[in-house]
Design brief:
It is built from twelve helices and 13 strands. It has helices at about 15-25, 65-75, 85-90, 95-115, 155-175, 195-205, 230-240, 255-265, 270-275, 295-300, 310-330, 335-340; strands at about 5-10, 30-35, 55-60, 75-80, 125-130, 175-180, 185, 215, 220-225, 225, 245-250, 255, 275-280. It is of the alpha/beta class and about 350 residues long. α6 runs parallel beside α8, α6 (about 195-205) packs across α11 and α8 crosses α11 (about 310-330). The chain has two domains: about 5-185 and about 225-250, 3-Layer(aba) Sandwich (Rossmann fold); about 195-220 and about 255-285 and about 310-340, Alpha-Beta Complex (UDP-galactose 4-epimerase, domain 1), CATH 3.90.25.10. Helices cover about 40% and strands about 15% of the residues.
Length: about 350
């Protein structure tokens, strides 16, 4: 039997790296789409990117469309994880966010439609859209597949457009197109400009005497935090279902940003109150007070459940960051190669 082929946009990100690792373990031939940049940002996937692993990288941009790559590769599954994914930054670049995060999904969906209609792609090709809990915005928690959407950021609005376009193409063209509405999910591979990683990394630097304080914005924001490795397993399960559908993926438990930070500092035996500072400039123009997912549907229909709880997630991230910070203190010239050697988390 021929290997399944998968395309992943956003493969160099946190979720893209875990998903590529998961699909390769399942025997897939994995093709990743990356944007051309002056410096490589493939550290998260370097442990898996080699000719023997059948993991191929291609240059492409969701702002331009990736039609030719889709038609050439002829994938069985397409996972659209690519986006301008930082909520606060989306206020600074709202048009770009809409183009890449919203219209980018439509470009892929329409390429699939044209590919099927012209006999280039198999009619059974499956599409996954990475939707976000930010689409709920100020909707009262808990939020499920039946909750109303009320996004309050350009990122949330763009994700909601992509969500509805996925449903429209599914209904209008009978395509296998599914949404995974993922609540916040973290890991040792999380980017530094996200608050959880900022907290764990800075706290480790304080522990080692490299930094003397941590500045944060809204400490009262409530978030449902899970582990990225668990969530990409849910993503894959959504496309293995016998019919396209939409699923909330979450832990069903939420904590404030302050609780997350306190847990990190407690684990490092540091006094939270001594080192943490507040700065209003770090807050978003529109704040989302509480995101709490109701993932009853995916647990019942697909039998998915998370394996990493809040305390395990904090420990996993702190342990990885502490190891990294110790490494660069001792071998600063080798820091760029560290992530390529480490897998940074458990399956």
């Amino acid at each position: 039997m021929a290997k399944k082929k998968a395309i992943i946009t956003g493969i160099t990100g946190q979720d893209g790296s875990y998903l590529s690792e998961w699909l390769l373990s399942k025997g897939y031939e994995v093709h990743g789409i990356i944007r051309r940049a002056s410096s490589l940002n493939t550290a998260r996937i370097d442990p898996y990117f080699d000719p023997e692993s059948k993991n191929f990288l291609h240059y492409g941009d969701l702002a331009d469309g990736i039609d030719n790559l889709i038609f050439e590769i002829k994938p069985d599954e397409i996972y659209n994880l690519g986006a301008m994914s930082h909520v606060k930054v989306s206020f600074d670049v709202p048009v770009y966010t809409g183009d890449v995060t919203g219209l980018g999904a439509t470009r892929i969906l329409d390429a699939i439609r044209r590919g099927i209609e012209n006999g280039i792609l198999d009619p059974g090709v499956k599409y996954y859209q990475a939707s976000s809990s930010e689409m709920f915005g100020t909707t009262e928690p808990p939020q499920s597949e039946n909750s109303p959407f009320n996004p309050v950021s350009p990122y949330g609005c763009a994700k909601l457009y992509a969500y509805h376009m996925t449903r429209a193409y599914r209904k209008g063209y009978k395509m296998f197109a599914s949404n995974g509405i993922l609540f916040n999910h973290e890991s040792p591979r999380r980017g530094f400009n996200f608050v959880t990683k900022k907290i764990t990394k800075t706290a480790c630097r304080i522990k080692l005497g490299v930094q003397d304080s941590l500045t944060l914005g809204n400490l009262s924001a409530l978030r449902d935090w899970g582990f990225s490795g668990d969530y990409v397993r849910a993503i894959w399960m959504i496309l293995q279902h016998n019919e396209p559908d939409d699923f909330v993926v979450s832990t069903g438990e939420y904590h404030t940003v302050k609780e997350f930070a306190e847990k990190v500092f407690e684990y490092l035996d540091l006094d939270f109150g001594k080192y943490v500072r507040y700065d209003k400039s770090y807050e978003r123009p529109n704040e989302v007070p509480a995101l709490l997912g109701d993932s009853s549907k995916i647990k019942k229909v697909l039998k998915w459940k998370p394996t990493v709880d809040f305390n395990m997630l904090v420990k996993m991230m702190v342990d990885a960051d502490l190891e990294y910070e110790k490494f660069i203190l001792n071998s600063p010239s080798q820091a760029i190669f560290f992530d390529a050697k480490k897998k940074g988390g458990k399956k």
